[in-house]
Task: inverse folding
């Protein structure tokens, strides 16, 4: 492995663009916090959530961000754990992005609680049979481990140890995403969940979501700060994103094929794949079409796959497809009625036996977006005050042995 | 209990020896709390000991519901629960998708044969309750005697228990609550469900729904100790084949049904 001669430097962050970005992010966060106040003051009655669809748009954003967080750490893991030195210059940014995504996601999750004021209760009272309780440890542990990893990468004396911590962080992030997928996998009574495949599927999704976010981030920061970004690293990430999208698709196909094979799951599959209205549309058009197949075409088509814009658009579509997938899993899974009396027609004043309706409220959307804004703000502040970014990601810097040919 | 506004006060004498300062143990131990509002913002808490003693696993409270009973009796049960526990609103104020329902009448029909039945569904007080398994703080809990409850003081309102309940028997309090009962503090932002009238059971009484039906001359909901071979309910469940909803899940509900 070549000696690391990368020069890391804070971005200047003095221009009007930087401050207007920070200003807009501040406005989005304030709007989200205002929504939280409104929701907590009046109760969740002002949201679109009900006693049947108990998790709504905030959870779509929160789970997406948390899943993406562990995936964003992959770039660092690839360099530390798997020894791919091309990715090493981006390892620091990868770690801070992972932390920022997790912080944004957890913020949304916590602020949607019925009693967010009782966060201290969640920190002090544990039921260790609950995957939620495990997740509290997995999430806080992730912060500690990734912060230590980041510090070791940045502190010259500690660099030799960073590989070990990087391996630990990699194992931890696999556990973390397993925990997030298992939130749904462990729901034994709901036909849309209750599947062990949720855990590995969420890991595959995290690879794709996290890298897509990271590619956009790197492209935007390098373009706006005027630092060189060569094709070599970009094309490497492009290839990786393609593999991750394919892996996510694989798990999605396996999940639905397995369900289709079991007669008892036919109804829920028919709902998601054929008769589910918005959920069917989101599944086929947004998740599969726009969010998976179209990005794959963009990434591997020579015309678009060799341009930064093409790769960024593909990444953006992966994120949109990912949000759609979260919507289908989280809300579609609840909208489909639970089967209390299999084979029977069921009705009641509590909407048993019917598809539950849900329409996101403005407050939920603002809360979700404030989580994204928090993530971006943390990164914006971090890259301004910490030497996280290489001054150049030109092909020659990324790979000293690089002969000017394409990846 | 700061959220609680009281309209009536339980002034039963307090057995000082049984006072338990842990709220969770209080609920688990089979004691009922009473709160007296002395002045705005000042409340006096008292603890009323369970006449039947602490909850133990020697008992397994359960119900047997006769789904062949006339449909009208289930409305009596629902109304009795509302009156006893202080949930439910006038029809003009109702928000059907967000209002809590601790017990509801469910109608089922076999689409092939046209056969119909109607039955009440409430918390099934499972022996292996998924809601208790998933609750991160332990607010969802099962007493030794099988009654499944929510400790409103440590419920953070995450609603994971509602995702996990196979019977949709839990409700989230979506707005401010009015008309609370001293024995049943409720709170916006927390989850609630049928308590099997634990405050009555601990005094040796029957749940409100059962009593209301008995008063109307119906025995359509039978309540008792499933562990006591001489109890009426034990004799009944040993005499008839009973069903439990989604028995395939292995959660072992404490509520049995006949005639579905």
Result:
């Amino acid at each position: 492995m070549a000696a690391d001669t990368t020069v890391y430097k804070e971005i200047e962050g003095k221009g009007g663009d930087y401050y207007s970005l920070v200003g807009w992010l501040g406005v989005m966060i304030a709007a989200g916090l205002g929504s939280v106040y409104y929701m907590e003051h009046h109760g969740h009655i002002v949201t679109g959530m009900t006693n049947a669809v108990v998790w709504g748009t905030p959870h779509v954003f929160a789970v997406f961000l948390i899943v993406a967080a562990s995936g964003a750490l992959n770039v660092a893991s690839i360099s530390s754990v798997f020894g791919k030195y091309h990715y090493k210059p981006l390892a620091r940014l990868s770690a801070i992005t992972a932390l920022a995504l997790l912080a944004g996601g957890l913020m949304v999750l916590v602020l949607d609680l019925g009693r967010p004021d009782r966060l201290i209760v969640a920190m002090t009272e544990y039921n260790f049979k609950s995957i939620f309780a495990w997740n509290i440890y997995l999430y806080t542990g992730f912060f500690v481990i990734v912060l230590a990893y980041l510090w070791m990468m940045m502190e010259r004396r500690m660099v030799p140890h960073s590989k070990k911590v990087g391996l630990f962080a990699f194992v931890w992030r696999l556990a973390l995403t397993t925990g997030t997928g298992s939130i749904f996998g462990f729901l034994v009574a709901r036909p849309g969940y209750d599947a062990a495949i949720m855990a590995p599927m969420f890991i595959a999704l995290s690879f794709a979501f996290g890298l897509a976010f990271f590619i956009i981030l790197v492209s935007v920061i390098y373009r706006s700060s005027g630092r060189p970004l060569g094709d070599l690293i970009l094309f490497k990430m492009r290839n990786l994103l393609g593999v991750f999208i394919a892996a996510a698709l694989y798990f999605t196909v396996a999940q639905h094929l397995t369900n289709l094979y079991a007669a008892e799951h036919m109804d829920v599959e028919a709902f998601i794949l054929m008769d589910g209205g918005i959920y069917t549309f989101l599944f086929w058009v947004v998740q599969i079409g726009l969010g998976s197949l179209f990005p794959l075409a963009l990434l591997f088509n020579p015309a678009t796959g060799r341009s930064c814009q093409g790769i960024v658009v593909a990444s953006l579509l992966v994120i949109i497809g990912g949000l759609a997938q979260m919507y289908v899993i989280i809300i579609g899974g609840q909208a489909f009625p639970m089967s209390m009396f299999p084979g029977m027609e069921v009705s009641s004043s509590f909407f048993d036996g019917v598809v539950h309706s849900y329409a996101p409220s403005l407050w939920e959307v603002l809360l979700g977006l404030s989580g994204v804004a928090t993530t971006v703000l943390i990164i914006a502040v971090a890259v301004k005050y910490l030497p996280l970014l290489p001054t150049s990601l030109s092909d020659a810097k990324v790979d000293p042995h690089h002969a000017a040919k394409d990846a | 209990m700061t959220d609680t506004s009281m309209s009536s006060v339980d002034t039963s004498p307090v057995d000082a020896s049984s006072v338990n300062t842990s709220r969770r143990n209080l609920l688990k131990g089979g004691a009922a709390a009473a709160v007296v509002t002395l002045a705005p913002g000042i409340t006096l808490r008292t603890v009323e000991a369970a006449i039947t003693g602490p909850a133990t696993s020697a008992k397994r409270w359960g119900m047997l519901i006769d789904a062949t009973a006339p449909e009208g009796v289930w409305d009596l049960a629902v109304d009795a629960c509302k009156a006893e526990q202080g949930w439910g609103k006038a029809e003009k104020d109702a928000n059907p998708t967000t209002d809590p329902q601790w017990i509801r009448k469910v109608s089922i029909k076999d689409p092939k044969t046209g056969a119909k039945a109607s039955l009440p569904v409430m918390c099934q007080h499972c022996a292996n309750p998924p809601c208790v398994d998933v609750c991160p703080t332990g607010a969802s809990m099962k007493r030794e005697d099988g009654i499944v409850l929510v400790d409103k003081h440590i419920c953070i309102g995450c609603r994971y228990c509602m995702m996990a309940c196979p019977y949709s028997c839990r409700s989230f309090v979506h707005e401010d609550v009015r008309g609370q009962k001293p024995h049943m503090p409720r709170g916006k932002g927390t989850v609630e469900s049928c308590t099997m009238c634990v405050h009555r059971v601990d005094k040796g009484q029957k749940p409100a729904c059962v009593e209301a039906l008995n008063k109307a001359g119906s025995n359509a909901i039978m309540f008792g100790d499933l562990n006591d071979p001489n109890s009426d309910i034990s004799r009944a469940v040993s005499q008839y084949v009973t069903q439990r909803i989604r028995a395939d899940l292995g959660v072992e509900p404490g509520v049995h049904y006949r005639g579905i």
Observations:
- DSSP finds 15 helices and three strands in chain A.
- Chain A touches chain B through 49 residues (CB under 8 Å).
- The domain at 8-244+358-391 of chain A is CATH 1.20.1630 (Formate dehydrogenase/DMSO reductase fold).
- The longest helix of chain A spans residues 231-261.
